[in-house]
Amino acid sequence: MLACQKHLFSLPSHTHYLNCAFMAPTAQKVEEAGIAGIRQRRDPSGVEHVDFFEESNRLRALFGELIHAPANSVAIVPSASYGLAAIAANLPVEQGDRIVVLDEQFPSNVYVWRRMAAEAGASLETVGPGEGPGDRATRWNERILEAIDARTAIVAIPNIHWIDGTIFDLEAISRRTRDAGAALVVDGTQSVGALPFDIERIRPDAVICAGYKWLLGPYSLGLAYYSERWHNGRPLEENWICREKSEEFGKIIDYRDGYHPGAIRFDMGERSNFVLVPMLATALEIVLNLTPAAIQEYCRNLTRLLANCAEELGFRLESPEGRVHHLFGLRARDGNTMDPDRLRDILGQRGISVSVRGNAIRISPHVYNDERDIQALIEALAAAMQTGT
């Protein structure tokens, strides 16, 4: 069983950082990799041609290992929105088609589809959990499946909901999507790295991940998987390094129309960032060493006390079967009130970092958290609910 890994990080002892869904703290080894990259740039005469390729290829291989995908299906992107825009530019959508998204989905995974729908004369269908008896997550998954039909061109959803951690059955959704002849685009930003993810089982068209959350990497760098179906697609940029034989520096003005094979054509310009790429690669090594399955189980055990007392504190929480354990949202139960400003004050005074998203208090622990962090949060929530009545 995985033990607390606080020693891998440099978090102050007096803080309770339960907010990895906002931004991961930088692990010590990741920080060291970034500093080494900065030092390398002190004297660029030491930068070799291979440095533009080797670390990028290592990064691809590590992400491929994490999601069980070929390394040449991985592209290096600056953000989730960039990765989404790249696949959107290659997806055929016609007038009358439908694009399925979720209620309160993260904006970057909505705006790109709103524009596409408006320009193509398609419609954007937003699926929420609805009302009714039974488990909320089960009901929501059933409504997603019902929304996918012969008119559906794209299903663009996350693996889990970024506000409350509701988990979506991507294998079932993928089967329905393929039967409908539609494309499945997954935003894995809030799940990949903390929850097992298998490309071979899910078979999506694309998976896009920002790197600075559960991949434990730096800001402004992410990774994207594009299935073989799109390996002849058109990239957003026409940069030199993605062209075939670009490693032959002396011949880069022998312009070539061909790209490196696979998804490398979708790489951003200046992808060989000598600071950020080794930081993200080092972070992925940490994640792979810990394993997403062990991270998920650690968070499950760590938050069991909070989950068990949530109702007593006056909150609603999705059932354990319908959500993940590294990210979940607490909502005030009917009849209970809580002043959000007062809550922020109480949390701030006690050094507790969580997020308020929509009407939910989003809690997102990781392996650097321990029982003291959870107990501090429970006491703060109890105080906030008392002052809110």
Structure description:
It is a single chain. The chain has 389 residues and is an alpha/beta fold. It has 2 domains: 6-21 and 291-388, Aspartate Aminotransferase, domain 1 (Alpha-Beta Complex), CATH 3.90.1150.10; 33-290, Type I PLP-dependent aspartate aminotransferase-like (Major domain) (Aspartate Aminotransferase, domain 2, 3-Layer(aba) Sandwich). The protein has 12 helices and 13 strands. It has helices spanning 28-40, 54-67, 80-88, 108-120, 136-147, 170-179, 199-202, 276-290, 292-302, 304-313, 340-349, 371-388; strands at residues 16-17, 74-77, 98-102, 123-127, 152-158, 183-187, 206-210, 222-226, 315-316, 328-332, 352-353, 355-357, 360-363. The mean pLDDT is 95.
List the helices and strands and how they pair.
Blueprint: E1 16-17, H1 28-40, H2 54-67, E2 74-77, H3 80-88, E3 98-102, H4 108-120, E4 123-127, H5 136-147, E5 152-158, H6 170-179, E6 183-187, H7 199-202, E7 206-210, E8 222-226, H8 276-290, H9 292-302, H10 304-313, E9 315-316, E10 328-332, H11 340-349, E11 352-353, E12 355-357, E13 360-363, H12 371-388
Parallel strand pairs: 1-11, 3-4, 3-5, 5-6, 6-7
Antiparallel strand pairs: 2-8, 7-8, 9-10, 10-13, 12-13
Helix pairs in contact: 1-8, 2-8, 3-4, 10-12, 11-12
